[in-house]
């Protein structure tokens, strides 16, 4: 009997041969196969991508693989939240909802959960910048913004996605807009390596106060979580200015920085027992196809306005304070808004 996720008919495919054996007849049967790549720790953003994939395809494969290649040697690979039981329970529940909703073409057909041995048959090459092995690098887009702070990150993402795409041979792949630079990298990967795959980007899912859903939000704890929506508020200030006609990169960055700096100054005025602090890694207005900075937004093209903010550890926690997953180390949060193209007046 094939292995399934508890309380569902979702197949659990644990290696590449099992995935290939399941995939092969789908082409013959003219079934559209979607892949939603994840590293587990599923949240509402993932579930919304899976819902969309089920609306548009006969089969949805969700991959759950915590990819060591996209973590730097000093990053949080070892502590990254691992929530397998909750993840598969969420998928089983979502699949029941999909079955009850006649608007969907498909369901969650399979979870692909390979081991590192499956994904790196010659052995894992390592997390160092100069590690030797078979990598996919997409430059220069992979070297700026997130790639500047995390030099092996996009090499790891592009490499694992190439492997997942080769193993699953999806017709469509689904990624979230929250990781804007990642979506640009994936589009370039598909285009430059002539992969017969459509890349679909789903909207960022936000909590009611604007914080973008992310697997890393569990690191925040209550105090930093309460402050974190400042990121979206800052981006929205610039979005508003763009909507009112502002196209200067400097002016748009100024809008974001005014909000981020203002709130930080307020926090700094509080005693350490009450405040939370952060450092702004970058604020960027970039070309939507290359992620390279622009001096002014070309209204015919639009731009991506993005930021990365490092929430610093709480300095003086009170007795019993919720400091977040593994006691609240620094957490780097990223977010972005799309400045859409518009007709010039
Ligand atoms: O966005 C993520 O969770 C990861 O970067 C991805 C695309 C699953 C590759 O490991």
TrEMBL record:
CDD domains in UniProt: PanC
SUPFAM superfamilies associated with the record: Nucleotidylyl transferase
E.C. number(s) listed in UniProt: 6.3.2.1
UniProt catalytic activity: (R)-pantoate + beta-alanine + ATP = (R)-pantothenate + AMP + diphosphate + H(+)
Gene Ontology BP term (one): pantothenate biosynthetic process
InterPro entries in the record: Pantoate_ligase, Pantoate_ligase_C, Rossmann-like_a/b/a_fold
Record keywords: ATP-binding, Ligase, Nucleotide-binding, Pantothenate biosynthesis
EC class (word): ligase
Pfam families, sorted: Pantoate_ligase (PF02569)
Pathway: Cofactor biosynthesis; (R)-pantothenate biosynthesis; (R)-pantothenate from (R)-pantoate and beta-alanine: step 1/1
A GO molecular-function descriptor: pantoate-beta-alanine ligase activity
Regions annotated as coiled coil: none
This protein's record includes keyword ATP-binding: yes
PANTHER family in the cross-refs: CYTIDYLATE KINASE/PANTOATE-BETA-ALANINE LIGASE, PANTOATE--BETA-ALANINE LIGASE
Family: Belongs to the pantothenate synthetase family.
NCBIfam families recorded: panC (TIGR00018)
Name of the protein in its database record: Pantoate--beta-alanine ligase
Source organism (scientific name): Cephalotrichum gorgonifer
